[in-house]
Write a structure and sequence with these properties.
mainly alpha, 72% helix, elongated
Length: 74
């Protein structure tokens, strides 16, 4: 079970949609999460990885150098 607080505007829009379609509000909240959770996870996991990399002090390797090393130059 999950309880969330929504801004009044979103709550109103959700209520109107639910009434118009005769579906529960939870249906649309679940639908929105299913559609966007992968993207949200990608962003936060990438940010966490970047923070770990920066904290490690390791040097970045320019893309051009990697491409040259593996013979992927244009």
């Amino acid at each position: 079970m999950l309880t969330i607080r929504l801004p009044a505007e979103i709550e109103t829009r959700l209520t109107i949609l639910a009434k118009a379609t005769r579906r529960p509000k939870s249906f649309y909240v679940r639908e929105a999460l299913e559609r966007s959770l992968d993207d949200i996870e990608d962003v936060y996991l990438a940010e966490a990885a970047l923070e770990r990399f920066r904290a490690s002090g390791e040097k970045a390797i320019p893309l051009e150098a990697v491409m040259k090393e593996y013979g992927l130059e244009d």
